[in-house]
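Re-running 4-oxalocrotonate tautomerase family protein to confirm reproducibility after the cluster update. Everything else is unchanged from the original entry.
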Amino acid sequence: MPFANYKFPEGTLTAEQKEDIILRTTAMFVDFFGEGVRPYTMVLVDEVVDGGYGRAGETLTIAKMQKGR
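Result of re-run:
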């Protein structure tokens, strides 16, 4: 069963964007493995509390990421 798990900062995606991610990911798996995998494809879109993730030893927040733009 193909499986994808995406993690995004809480509140940064709309319901429509989550649905789009699920649809596109499913389509990608179907492109790779054929139509037979569609009913078995699992896509999870998790929302992580702001500050609940990090990189290179630093806790990331939305405010920190926006500063880097």
